[in-house]
Structures are given as C-alpha cells and as structure tokens.
Design brief:
alpha/beta; 5 helices; single chain; 127 residues; 7-stranded mixed beta sheet; 31% helix
Length: 127
C-alpha cells in the first residue's frame, strides 16, 4: 500500500490509505485528529505521524476523534497510549469514542480508565 502525499499547511494535515484516513485540524489552539476506517496496523503509523505533527503545533489540547472508526485494533490502541503518555505528548489528550466498535475495546482493555473519553467531538472541545 502506498501512502498518499500528506497535504500540510499551518492548520490542516491529512494522511490516507486504502484502509482509512487520519486528518488533522487546528481549532483555535486545539489539535483535532479525525480517524476514519479501520484503525489497525496499516493506519496506526499514519495516526502516529500526524499526532507528532500536531505536537509541533504546540496545542493546548489534543483530541482524537474515533467516531468514523470501523475497527479498533491493538495497534490503534497503542497509538492512543503513545499520544497520551509518549515522548511527544505535549498536551492533554481527549478521545472521542462511543458505541461498541470503539468504546468497548477501550473498556475491555481498561484504557477507558486511563484515557479521558468523551461521547462526541463537541463534548471533547469544551474547555
């Protein structure tokens, strides 16, 4: 699989592949990563790269929106933990997850106890 060229300016970035996509938006100092498709071994590196780019923006908060995720694998959950407490974790992390596909794996692995989980993007964006 070939990664599509990443388009970047000061406020947006995107990485896409056949398995899904990750897009970065800068919303008034909050970096929002929207993930669509299967967050698995194929898409997880793209999430990592854009999370690292988001950290370079020095946001006041990082939000990872999993609303469009169709499958959440362990590789995807590992990237959530990396964004939360890894070497580039420069801002508080909030994760948008609701429903069986995303919330259930986070609960079963007890990551929901460590991560700040919100049911919608609008809830996660409230200071």
């Amino acid at each position: 699989m070939h990664e599509r060229d990443v388009t970047w300016d000061s406020s947006r970035g995107e990485a896409a592949g056949s398995a899904g996509s990750v897009a970065l938006e800068n919303r008034d100092g909050t970096a929002v990563l929207r993930v669509d498709g299967a967050l698995d071994l194929a898409l997880a590196p793209k999430l990592r790269r854009l999370a690292e780019r988001a950290a370079q923006l020095q946001p006041t908060m990082l939000v990872i929106d999993l609303t469009g995720v169709t499958f959440l694998a362990s590789a995807g959950m590992a990237e959530l933990i990396r964004a939360h407490r890894g070497p580039t974790a420069s801002a508080p992390l909030r994760v948008v997850a609701s429903g069986r596909i995303t919330l259930r794996p986070l609960e079963l692995t007890r990551l929901a106890d460590e991560l700040a989980i919100y049911p919608s993007l609008s809830d996660a964006l409230v200071p």
